[in-house]
Protein: ABC transporter ATP-binding protein
Amino acid sequence: MGVDKLFEIKSLSKSFIKGKTEVSIFSNLNMDINQGDFLAIMGPSGSGKTTLLNLIGGIDKPTQGTVLYRGRQYHDTTEAELSAWRAQHVGFVFQSFNLMPMLSAAGNVELPLLLRQLTRSQRREKVMAALELVGLVDRKGHKPNEMSGGQNQRVAVARAIVGDPDILLCDEPTGNLDRETATQVLDILRLLNQEFKKTIIMVTHDPLAAQYAKHRVELDKGMIVNKEVVVAKDAVVTQEATAIKEDTAGMSGELVAEKGVVT
Ligand SMILES: Nc1ncnc2c1ncn2[C@@H]1O[C@H](COP(=O)(O)OP(=O)(O)OP(=O)(O)O)[C@@H](O)[C@H]1O
Structure:
């Protein structure tokens, strides 16, 4: 089966200037991310995970090297074009939810739609569909301080998907949640990946979250030190899946995991 490369990260270098010194975060990083993947980026604190996510999401620009989206260089444009690309293709989910405290759940989910040419009723329809997907229609009028952490993160997921992006970038989405609510959020991410075909790239320290991914990469000191295909705990592993697991070098294998069965 053919595999579509969504992102190609080529010879990527990123450094920051601190005082008079240039601090290198990565140098010469190479990686492909396939359409439909659920990728977990792991590694110690300070290894550059969030920086990599921000580069992929067009929040930050490479110092050197390129990131291609469907074969196209997208960083080398104006801020306005980059921001239009982000609005169309990317939804972000953060550890600390980043909801507007004075707005209701529905008001928060509606925010990305305000930049689009939609009528009020079209916006409302999309907001309700997104809230329904995360199971929070009955909380639509609640403000963030009237909801639990898990509910707030589900609102944040609804806000990330309301514009129907093809990519979800999640930075420690379960970092502020207990096991039970983390599982609810991760189940929604899995549904978005498997049923709605969203490509998900998730930075995480959480071993539970990493189990939901199809692939894991581990960063350390600006380098990819490990790549693996995740085989679900209760999966039936066929020879093909085992072969893919062994072929971790190029992240080129495609693994279709549905309902915990790897085929
Ligand atoms: N804007 C910036 N200016 C200067 N240094 C930065 C900037 N952003 C990140 N860094 C530095 O880059 C390094 C990598 O940061 P990053 O947040 O990507 O790491 P991380 O792996 O996500 O860490 P954590 O797991 O703690 O969130 C850190 O040493 C950080 O201090």
